[in-house]
Design a protein that fits this description.
By secondary structure, the chain is mainly α. Helices cover 75% and strands 0% of the residues. It is elongated, with a radius of gyration of 45 Å.
Length: 255
C-alpha cells in the first residue's frame, strides 16, 4: 500500500511540472527572431522607404520649379533686350526729327551726304596732321552711317588714342558720346561729351555737346539738371543750331 502511494506521489510530482510548464505563455523575442525580418526591422525598412519616396518627390518638385524659373529668366532677358532696342531706336528717331527741324547739329550727323564727308576730308588741319587722320576719321564714321554702332565705337576709341590732339579729335569724342547714348551707355556718353567741353573749349562741337548732356540728364530723370544745361546752351551759344534744338526740347517737355 505504501509502495503504491509512493509511486502515485512520484508520478504526480512529474505530471505537475509538465502541466504548469504547458500553461505558461510563450514569449517570442521579436527583436531577435528571424534576424533581419523581425517586426522592428520591417517597420524601420518601411519608414526608410517612405522617407526616401518623400525626398525623391521633393527633389522632383524642386527641379520642376527650377526649370520654370529658368524659363522665366530667359523670357525676361528677351523682353529686356527688346526694350533696349526699342529705346535705342526711339532715341534715334527723336534725334533725327529734331535734327531735321533744326537744320542739323553737325555736318557729319546722319544722314550725311557726300559733300559733308568731302569737306571733312579736304579741310586742312591746323596742326599739320597726316593724311591718315582724315582717312581714319572717315573709316570710323562710315560705321556710323551703316548703323554699326559697336564697330563705330571701337573705331573712334582707336582714333582718339592715336590722334589725341587734332581738329577732328573733338568730333570723335562727340561721336563717341552719341554712340554710347544710342547704346544706352549713359556714363561713357557723358564722359565723352565732357571731354569735348573740357579739352576742346574752342571747338564748334561745344554747343552740341552741351545740348546732348542736357538730353542725357533728361533721360536719367533729372529735369532740373537737364534744364540748366539746355538753358546754358541758349545763353552761351544763342546763334548755334544746338540752341534752337534746346529751345524745342524745353518747349516740348514743358520747361
Amino acid at each position: 500500500m505504501r509502495h503504491g502511494l509512493k509511486r502515485l506521489c512520484g508520478a504526480g510530482a512529474l505530471v505537475l511540472p509538465l502541466t504548469v510548464a504547458a500553461q505558461q505563455p510563450v514569449i517570442e523575442d521579436l527583436t531577435e527572431s528571424q534576424r533581419g525580418g523581425g517586426f522592428y526591422s520591417q517597420t524601420a525598412t518601411r519608414e526608410e522607404a517612405g522617407g526616401s519616396l518623400v525626398i525623391f518627390n521633393q527633389v522632383q518638385q524642386h527641379q520642376e520649379e527650377i526649370r520654370q524659373l529658368r524659363g522665366q529668366v530667359e523670357e525676361l532677358r528677351h523682353q529686356l533686350e527688346q526694350l533696349r532696342r526699342q529705346t535705342r531706336q526711339q532715341y534715334l528717331d527723336i534725334e533725327d526729327r529734331l535734327m531735321a527741324a533744326g537744320g542739323g547739329v553737325d555736318q557729319a550727323t546722319p544722314p550725311v551726304d557726300e559733300q559733308s564727308a568731302r569737306e571733312v576730308a579736304e579741310t586742312p588741319s591746323p596742326s599739320g596732321d597726316a593724311a591718315g587722320t582724315q582717312q581714319a576719321y572717315q573709316a570710323a564714321f562710315a560705321h556710323v552711317q551703316a548703323r554699326e554702332f559697336g564697330e563705330a565705337i571701337r573705331a573712334f576709341e582707336a582714333f582718339v588714342d592715336q590722334y589725341p590732339d587734332t581738329r577732328l579729335t573733338a568730333n570723335a569724342y562727340y561721336w563717341l558720346g552719341e554712340l554710347h547714348s544710342a547704346e544706352s551707355n549713359l556714363e561713357p556718353a557723358e564722359a565723352a561729351f565732357r571731354r569735348v567741353l573740357e579739352d576742346f573749349p574752342e571747338s564748334s562741337k561745344v554747343p552740341d555737346a552741351l545740348y546732348k548732356l542736357g538730353l542725357l540728364e533728361a533721360r536719367r530723370g533729372r529735369p532740373e539738371e537737364s534744364r540748366a544745361l539746355l538753358e546754358r546752351v541758349r545763353e552761351e551759344h544763342p546763334d548755334s543750331s544746338a540752341a534752337g534744338l534746346a529751345d524745342d526740347f524745353l518747349r516740348q517737355t514743358g520747361n
